Predict the 3D structure of the following.
Amino acid sequence: MKMEFEYREEYIKTSRGVQLFTCRWLPPNSSSPKALVFLCHGYGMECSGFMRECGIRLASARYAVFGIDYEGHGRSTGSRCYIKKFENIVNDCDEFFKSVSAEKEYRHKGRFLYGESMGGAVALLLHMKEPSFYNGAVLAAPMCKISEKLKPHPVVVNILTGFEDLIPKWKIVPSKDVIESAFKDPVKREEIRNNKLIYQDKPRLKTALEMLRTSMRVEESLSKASDAAILGAAWRLRYTGETDENVGIVFTDIVAWLNKFTAEGSNLVVEPLHETFSIGIEKLPSPPPTTKKHSIDRMALRSEWRKKEIPKPSLKTLASSFLPMEEDTPSKNEEEEFSTGPLSVLMMSVKNNTQVLINCRNNKKLLGRVRAFDRHCNMVLENVREMWTEVPKTGKGKKKAQPVNKDRFISKMFLRGDSVIIVLRNPK
C-alpha cells in the first residue's frame, strides 16, 4: 500500500519562553486537507518518531496532522520528562494548535484532537476548555482514570506531597516496564527501546503527582461533563505495539469516523479565527525547518525491517508471548472479547444504537444508549433514564410507607465501571 505525504519540522517559542519542537504531516502535492488533526502524545513519548505512523496514515487520507513535543519531551527543551505543572502542557498545546488554526489556508478547516494515554487527558482538557473550538476528539487508551489497584494509598500521597517541593526532580517513583506489556510485536518493542527520544527511566516525583492529580481531575470532570464536553468523541483501543494488520483496522475505523464529520453536507461548524488573531507563538529560524516529500511503499518497508539485524530474543521474551498479559492488557484476543465475549452487549449497543439496561450499585438502574466504552466497563452513555426506589420516612408509631418508584432523565453521562453489576439488552 503506497502512502504519499509531505513532512515538515519547525521549532517554536511559546509565550512562556519555552522552545518546543513541532512537526506536521500534510496531504501530497499541497492539496487542501479535509480537516486538521492535532496530536497529543503520551508520557515520555514524542511525535516525530513514535507518532509517525499516525501522521502518515492520516495525511495519506488527506488530513493535515500537527504534532508537538511537550516541554522536557522528545526534541523540546526542558528537564527530561519533568512536569512542573500539567497546566503548562495544556496551555502550550492550546497556543500551538490555535496558531496553526489561524494560518490563512487552515482558518476555515475543521479541528480534531487525537490523544494517546496521557495525551488523551491533554486532549480532554483542551476540549473541555473550549468545546466549541474543536469539532471532536479521538482518544486511544486515555489517562482518565487510575485503577484502584494501582492508585497509591492516601497516606503515601500525603507523604510524597510534603517532599515534592524539596526534591521535585528525583526519580524515586517505582514503575513497571510499560514497553514490555504494551508492545506485543518484538520488532516494534525493540524499535521503541532504541528510540533515544523516548524517556524510559523512573518518573520524577513532581511528575508522578501531577499526573495523579490530573487523572483525578479528568475523572471528576467527565462524571459531571456537559453535553458539549464529550460530544463527538471517538474512544479507540491503543494501536501502538500491534501488528500491521491490526493497526490498519484501527486507522480504517478512525478515518471513517473523521470522514463522517468532514464529508460534504455534514454541516461541520467551524469557529472562525480573525486575521488579527495572535496567540504569542514565535517561530524560530534556527535550527532551520525541514520540508520533505515522501512516498512510502509499506510492503518494501516491511521487507527492509526483516533484513535488519534484530537481537535474538531470550527464552523469557519468547515465553512472555504465550503467557497471560499484565493487568492492563487483555488476556485473550481483543476482537473475540468484543464480538462474542461479555463485552459484546456493549459493542452491539454502540454499533446498532440500541438500548441497554444497566444494574448499578445502590439499587439503581440505567436505561440508555452506549456511545463509547472500554474493557473495564467505563462507559459514555446518552439519553439515559435513571430509575430507583425510595421508601418515604414516617413518624414513630405510624404505618410503614409503601416504596415509591422514581426516575429522571440524563442526556449524557460518564459511568465508572466499578459501579456496574450487570448489563442486559433492553428486553423491550
